[in-house]
Amino acid sequence: MEEILVETTKSFDKDLKKLSEKEQNLISEKLNFLISSIREKGNTKQLYRLQKLKLPNDLSSSLFVFKIDVQLRAILTFEKDPLFNQSVMTLMRVVRHSDLDKTFKSVSESLYQDMVNFNNA
Predict the structure, then answer these.
(1) CA dihedral defined by 28, 34, 37, 40, rounded to 10 degrees?
(2) 61 in Cβ contact with 49 (< 8 Å)
(3) What is the per-residue pLDDT across 16-35, written as a single tens digit (0 to 9) for each?
(4) Domain limits of the chain?
(5) Can you say whether the dihedral through the CA atoms of 29, 1, 38, 16 is positive or negative?
(6) Which uninterrupted H or E stretch holds 11?
(7) I want to staple 47 with a disulfide (CB 3.0 to 4.6 A). Which of 12, 17, 64, 95 is the partner?
């Protein structure tokens, strides 16, 4: 069974505090389900990329979106670390679907600012 280290950013924690207790509980349940699915089956099919980012040297982006429900989306990074035989999931933001495009672009720009010219993306 694969070990998964889960980290959160201050932005994610701040977003979470703005939501209702019911929404917070739903997010926790869905993320726990995702993590157990990845641990037990290696299944990452629930994660998707909103945009195809062109990074130099054929690197691929580790930035994904996870659908919580009709309204909520989590933006996260997911990277396998073969050296330590684990994966690292960093929860970046949780947003309403209507804010997803704008927030995803902002997160991707901050993560990859030194690697990508976003004016051409």
Answers:
(1) -70
(2) yes
(3) 999 999 999 999 999 999 99
(4) 3-112
(5) positive
(6) helix 10-17
(7) 64
